[in-house]
């Protein structure tokens, strides 16, 4: 059975019962997708039902005043979305576009929303790439590039578009969404329950707790690090900082690099120790007076021990900055 068939089979058994599922009206699908931008499914459901009851089609929405549209949007937030719906309805009048480029031209519609409508309404072979799809596909195909970069999103989109050819793209896209919500979780995915376990390259190479890599760029007053919990048995590596900010304090090793694999290369060059990345722990933010640290923390296993490794008891004797002390506290539970 193919990946697509397994995913569709899982979806048909486990799919969520949502009011905007299994409908063909592109207008209603469009409304739901705009509402779902930056808002959870649970929060959207009651607003969607009320909005569609009052504005059941393009013409009704176009003929309403913006004040009334806002009133039915009240409480959902990001009111510009409601304005975009109203403006686009007035441009369409009564016929929803059927081509990707025309849907993409609607106000407030990006590639994800256009692809979702093409798939859900018209069953065309488009992959809808949001955070869920990026996570699932990056693990499935062990894509180690940073998903925050446009080139990586394009790579994953190209893979996804090939995945849906010859299959019901709506079931695959909706399947990925529900699958990401129930099984392929951001942290500690339920791999033992995964029907794609045998096909998942991340699982087969023990990278499911590392991928996806999601390192967002920060402004010049901020620094983005890959910060390492480098372990050997029950000890953690801490390096005495010789100068600059936090001088003479003991820090976790960290580098301004884009992935844990780049960290491994830089670490090897500095310390001559080979590492294996075990998992992504969590992302931390620490604000100093004049700058902010964004720390993407990964756990690494060292192949040999050096003098810079300390047990938990020994760590208590060291001066560790708050930024890294809270990471160690989280790691040690």
Automatic annotation (TrEMBL):
Domain HhH-GPD, first and last residues per copy: 35-182
Co-factor remark: Binds 1 [4Fe-4S] cluster.
SUPFAM superfamilies: DNA-glycosylase, Nudix
Organism, scientific name: Catenibacterium faecis
Claim: Iron-sulfur is one of the keywords in the record: yes
Enzyme nomenclature, EC number: 3.2.2.31
Keyword Ubl conjugation applies: no
Cofactor section: [4Fe-4S] cluster
Catalysed reaction, written as an equation: Hydrolyzes free adenine bases from 7,8-dihydro-8-oxoguanine:adenine mismatched double-stranded DNA, leaving an apurinic site
Protein name: Adenine DNA glycosylase
